[in-house]
Amino acid sequence: RFLSFLFLNRVVAVYGTLSDLLSVASSKLGIKATSVYNGKGGLIDDIALIRDDDVLFVCEGEPFIDPQTDSKPPEGLLGFHTDWLTLNVGGRYFTTTRSTLVNKEPDSMLAHMFKDKGVWGNKQDHRGAFLIDRSPEYFEPILNYLRHGQLIVNDGINLLGVLEEARFFGIDSLIEHLEVAIKNSQPPEDHSPISRKEFVRFLLATPTKSELRCQGLNFSGADLSRLDLRYINFKMANLSRCNLAHANLCCANLERADLSGSVLDCANLQGVKMLCSNAEGASLKLCNFEDPSGLKANLEGANLKGVDMEGSQMTGINLRVATLKNAKLKNCNLRGATLAGTDLENCDLSGCDLQEANLRGSNVKGAIFEEMLTPLHMSQSVR
């Protein structure tokens, strides 16, 4: 049923394809050869798997029977090429050697699975192939990597799937190769600022009742002047050097946003949330922070160094522990404002209305208070 070329002293040169080999075997051995097996019963499905001096067996379609148990081969062939084995991975057969699975990554799961013969016990199919319940599509690149050390993945194969298999089998060096390959295959991130045209198109496509979230987006240098930006969430967005003059930012969330160098002259900032925002060097002249309904603007902890807020309406505004060093607040309405712990060093507060303002613990070193509409009382505990 099985005939070795060496048993009949037939040495055949192997060229071309597997079909050519079967044709030669049929002619030389006088049978109709349909399958070729290695010495361990592994099905050869690619001629590239055949090495010089391999012992090959051919059959006419019947199941493989180990010649060492069925009929005793010549003495010199006992134990010959026992390193070969076949894996049944998810229904697909792979023929390889034990040393391929063990030598390159000796600490991997595959190495531990096949380091000692017989470790799998009865986990073999009817053809003697070792059963592995994993994806053959993702296993093939892993096996090839263990063969020649190169990561080669055919088109259409998801690298993330191969990476998951590499992690499952513990092929550490391949994991590094795959992570680099996946990173290089990703399109470059676009950090370019959003233009006015793009943003207006975005605004028009959004239903008026929907919450518009622009958290962390880059608007640096954009012209957003005179736009209706009410209730939009700009938390942690980059709005540096933006033109927001005459924009309606009523109840907008600008928490931790970067507004440095921006122009917000005459903007509507009623009920705005600017906690811990950075507006250093920005222009906020003639802005309206005063909400008739009583909703107070919150700029607690904001960086307002050097801002120009001249003539702004800020009744009841919360500027607690904000930094206003060198800021211009001339003629501002700060009636009832919370300025506790605020740094007002070298601020120009001339002409301001500070009636009922809370200046407890604030730093007014070098501040200008000339022509104040309301006298500053020492009971307000400024420093």
Automatic annotation (TrEMBL):
Tell me if Phosphoprotein is a UniProt keyword of this record: yes
Q: Where is each BTB domain found? A: 85-155
Source organism (scientific name): Colobus angolensis palliatus (Peters' Angolan colobus)
Q: What does this protein do?
A: Substrate-specific adapter of a BCR (BTB-CUL3-RBX1) E3 ubiquitin-protein ligase complex, which mediates the ubiquitination of target proteins, leading to their degradation by the proteasome.
Q: Which InterPro entries match?
A: 5peptide_repeat, BTB/POZ_dom, KHA_dom, Pentapeptide-BTB/POZ_domain, SKP1/BTB/POZ_sf, T1-type_BTB
List the SMART domains: BTB (SM00225)
PANTHER family, sorted: BTB_POZ DOMAIN-CONTAINING PROTEIN KCTD9
Where in this chain does the record put each KHA domain? 1-76
Name of the protein in its database record:
BTB/POZ domain-containing protein KCTD9
Signal peptide annotation: 1-16
Q: What keywords does the record list, in alphabetical order?
A: Phosphoprotein, Repeat, Signal, Ubl conjugation pathway
Q: Pathway listed for it?
A: Protein modification; protein ubiquitination
GO biological process terms held by the UniProt record: protein homooligomerization
Spell out the Pfam families in the cross-references: BTB_2, KHA, Pentapeptide
Identify the CDD domains for this entry. Answer: BTB_POZ_KCTD9, KHA
